[in-house]
Write a structure and sequence with these properties.
- By secondary structure, the protein is mainly alpha-helical.
- The chain has one domain.
- Helix content is 68%, strand content 0%.
- It has 5 helices and no strands.
- Helix 1 runs antiparallel to helix 2, helix 2 packs antiparallel against helix 3 (62-82) and helix 4 (93-103) crosses helix 5 (106-114).
- It is globular, with a radius of gyration of 14 Å.
- The N and C termini lie far apart (41 Å).
- The mean pLDDT is 95.
Length: 119
């Protein structure tokens, strides 16, 4: 168990709640909402992961990684729903974090991973 357990549990709970209460936009895309999902969801997951992997390196256990990845994929799926698409995602936190570092842009990262929105 890492020092990040509480932060990860809070992210997982928030992602589950966001998914449970999500209402798809009537007239997609809802770009503002999609960006908010990326910033306040995906971005928070990536930040915890990067923080744990840099600095004082805090190993995350399997349960913590599973919670982070479920939260990440919940928010990526909500991002696609903001664009009127419904896809199942199964990305690892590592691959999303690495791509986010490379692109330096969460919207570009999400688009490259999900294909949403189309180019």
């Amino acid at each position: 168990m890492s020092d990040y357990r509480d932060r990860i549990a809070a992210l997982a709970a928030r992602a589950r709640e966001d998914r449970r209460t999500f209402d798809a936009p009537d007239d997609p895309p809802d770009e503002e909402r999609a960006v908010r999902v990326l910033r306040e969801g995906v971005g928070d997951v990536v930040a915890v992961y990067v923080d744990a992997r840099t600095g004082e390196f805090a190993p995350l256990d399997r349960e913590e990684m599973a919670l982070l990845e479920r939260a990440l994929n919940d928010w990526l799926e909500l991002y696609t729903r903001c664009h009127g698409r419904e896809i199942d995602t199964e990305f690892t936190v590592r691959e999303v974090a690495e791509l986010a570092v490379d692109t330096r842009d969460l919207a570009d990262t999400a688009q490259l991973l999900t294909g949403v929105p189309g180019r």
